[in-house]
Amino acid sequence: MPNERLRATLLERGLTPSSLSDELGVDQKTVERWIAGRLPYRKHRFAVAALLGVDEVYLWPGALSKDQVAAASDSEVLAIYPHRSDVPREAWERLFQAAERDIGVLVYSGLFLAEDPVLQKVLADRARAGTRVRILLGDPDSPQVAERGADEGVAGMVAAKIQNVLVLYRALREIESVEFRFHRTILYNSIYRGDEHLLVNTHIYGVPAAGAPVWHLRKVAGGEIASTYLESFERVWDSAVPVPG
After folding, report:
1. 185-224 burial, b if ≥16 CB within 10 A, otherwise e?
2. Residue 24: exposure state from Cβ atoms within 10 A (0-12, 13-18, ≥19)
3. In this predicted model, what pLDDT tens digit does every residue of 66-114 receive, in sequence order?
4. Domain annotation for the chain: domains and CATH numbers
5. What angle do CA 35, 36, 42 make, to 5 degrees?
6. Which residue among 48, 59, 93, 126 is least packed, with the fewest CB closer than 10 Å?
7. Which residues have a Cβ under 8 Å from the Cβ of 234 and sit 6 or more positions away?
8. Rg (CA), the chain
């Protein structure tokens, strides 16, 4: 059966079987066989997935056994912090400073981040260096934000924090390559991304985000945990709207 995912991803990236074969140092007919449905060796699957910026398991579903997926996923977990307040400040700085392609922030307000001038400078510097910076904030007029405030026992305060954050990010919002959007989703986790690294702040009913656990994840080929959060971020981004003015 032809591998339509591989064919489509090549087209999306503007690549041909010939150009892909040149990049990988393999014969063009080998690439054509992959598109026709032949399963490549894993080293080639990994190389193709890395070059195209997608998961190996997306291009070749079922190529890895359940044990292989479980082992890869287990290795994606680098650290677990019992509370967000336990995450060293240096970890936040490293997360964003090391990012070369994509920085993403999905929060309701993320006030602690906006209040840190050093982290704001890191975001600005990375944006000016060509890194894509995307920040998703909760729509302050949404019922989801109102419900979150009620859950934490601070009705109205979450919306006020978001308005405060917009003021604090005023200079960052003027940088052309920085994008801000409002979302109206139930936020099960706050997600902070720097390329392949993620800090995921879980949300627990009745517990402020600073008191909830944080996972430090790094995307590993064949693993599924980091990809799950990265895909969730993209779904929220696609449904969000630009912050006015």
Report:
1. bebebbbbbbbbbbbbbebeeeeebeebbbbbbbbbebbb
2. middle
3. 666 666 667 788 999 999 999 999 999 999 999 999 999 999 999 999 9
4. 4-63 (1.10.260.40), 73-242 (3.30.870.10)
5. 55
6. 93
7. none
8. 20
